[in-house]
Amino acid sequence: MAIGTTAGLSNGITIALTVVLAFIFIFGYALTARGVRRTGLPWPQPIRIAR
To answer: In angstroms, rounded to a whole number, what is the distance separating the alpha carbons of residues 3 and 35?
Structure first.
């Protein structure tokens, strides 16, 4: 939300930008965890590595 505020965007556009960036972050995190998971580690381990 700081990006939208700094850029002088309206509230609606700032919220939309925040939601889009959150989905991009979650998608990237999932791809990282999936790649680490392929090495054969149990589920808690990739989560710790991807953080």
So the answer is: 30
